[in-house]
Write a structure and sequence with these properties.
heterodimer; A: 86 residues; alpha+beta; Outer Surface Protein A, domain 3; three-stranded antiparallel beta sheet; 14% helix; globular; disordered N terminus; B: 347 residues; alpha/beta; nine-stranded mixed beta sheet; 9 strands
């Protein structure tokens, strides 16, 4: 499953083996496979929505921007979201 | 002063699901007594739902021996169905084909099987006569069933410190990992501390062992012992990342701080989040000042170590971890210096 920059909803799926929740500093990820935590100090750049038993990220306080896309690409490199860009 | 904003909810919760146990291990953090007010199944389900609502990622089930609860498999099934990772700490002696078959169908599930020696004489001295053989049967059963997320969990003691390499080899032989746990004078462990705890040279041996084997897990606060040689956790997670729940729902910052003054409330009556955010004992843990450590160059890597150990042995949460490797090495240097002085004094 892939989310695209140009998609209408602009929601980015989180892989099934990753749990995520919002914290005051941003997002806290947990990898089910190796029990590692990742703290992402993103403040309100991304919100988490839960649907169909899994999590999705979507732009939070700010609209979509290159900075936000860079952040999402970094998260994708770490396997925390599924994102291939435009 | 360490004053980090707490997370909105714990990341993991350690749940002593029962006080009952069929063994009587020397070091046990609990005393093996049944809790007459142990939560029932419906209460347990309600708690799991609450943990799910707060996005707690993982529940560490312990005890006592969790599998002595008749409804434990149902509790586990409910936990994993809610998407929460379950991690079960068992003594392995009550595992059988039926239990393992049910466990195999659950995911995500991690198993930790306690083994405190690489041979029967060492293990049985600590965990009771005949336990080694039964634990091995449990491990074999898990291996044959294709379990991979299994850790052999060893509480490192004076009696087994020289068997760590052998235990590491055993774990690898099964395709499992070795996980080391620190001994702390809590529960039954209070009475056995003087005879079982590690002395300076043994603590430094453990440091060397953990330095050599990066793949050995140290689920809890070994970081004051491995400071400078191992990366990872760098401060106590009690009241910051995790908390502990007793069989009857009492909440504590950690399983090793269960004196009356640390009781933060009861999940069944107070709810987890109000406890997590406002309990006095949690606030206390979050604001500990380890001033004697603040000038240590390694302070950022351990933040003073395990408060529970400092509290148990020195009477204060704010004292430095009594097993801090840096202090132990300094002491050893001091002894060597004294020895050289005594040799040179005739001159």
């Amino acid at each position: 499953m892939t989310a695209y920059v140009g998609s209408t909803e602009r929601e980015i799926p989180v892989p099934k083996n990753i749990r995520v929740r919002e914290e005051d500093f941003g997002l806290l990820f947990y990898n089910v496979d190796d029990q590692t935590l990742t703290f992402v100090h993103s403040k309100r750049l991304l919100d988490v929505v839960y649907r169909e038993g899994r999590a999705w990220l979507r732009p939070g306080a700010c609209p979509w921007s290159h900075g936000l896309e860079r952040l999402i690409r970094r998260l994708a490199e770490k396997g925390l979201v599924v994102f291939e860009g435009r | 002063m360490i004053d980090l904003s707490p997370l909105r909810a714990p990341v993991t919760v350690t749940w002593q699901i029962t006080g009952r146990c069929n063994l009587s291990c020397r070091h046990c953090l609990s005393d093996g007594a049944a809790d007459p007010e142990e939560m029932g199944f419906e209460e347990a389900k309600a708690l799991i739902e609450e943990l799910q609502r707060h996005r707690v990622f993982q529940i560490n089930f312990g005890g006592g021996e969790p599998f002595l609860r008749e409804d434990f498999l149902d509790i586990l099934e409910y936990t994993t169905r809610k998407g929460i990772v379950a991690c079960v700490s068992t003594n392995g002696t009550v595992l059988n084909e039926r239990i393992v078959k049910t466990l195999k169908a659950l995911s995500p599930l991690y198993m930790q099987v306690s083994l405190d020696g690489a041979c029967p004489s060492t293990n049985d001295l600590i965990r009771g006569k005949g336990s080694f053989e039964r634990i091995i049967e449990g491990l074999e059963l898990l291996r044959r069933s294709g379990f991979v997320k299994v850790a052999i969990n060893t509480v490192v003691l004076r009696q087994n410190v020289d068997e760590l390499e052998a235990l590491y080899g055993m774990a690898r032989g099964y395709g499992f990992i070795l996980r080391c746990t620190r001994f702390r004078p809590s529960g039954r462990g209070r009475g056995s501390w003087s005879g079982y705890s590690l002395r300076r040279e043994e603590l430094l041996k453990v440091r060397g062992f953990l330095q050599r084997h990066d793949d050995v897990r140290t689920g809890d606060s070994f970081f004051p012992i491995t400071v400078g040689v191992r990366k990872g956790l760098n401060m106590c997670g009690a009241a910051r990342m995790t908390c502990s729940i007793s069989p009857s729902g009492s909440v504590y910052p950690c399983p090793f701080l269960t004196d009356k003054e640390f009781k933060a409330g009861n999940v069944l009556t107070d709810g987890l989040l109000p406890i997590w955010r406002h309990a006095r004992s949690f606030e206390m843990l979050r604001k500990i000042e380890r001033s004697p450590c603040s000038s240590c160059p390694f302070f950022a890597q351990c933040h003073g170590g395990c408060p529970a150990l400092a509290y148990s042995l020195l009477g204060s949460l704010e004292e430095p971890d009594p097993e801090c490797a840096m202090r132990l090495m300094e002491e050893r240097k001091g002894l060597l210096w004294e020895a050289s002085l005594s040799i040179s004094s005739p001159l």
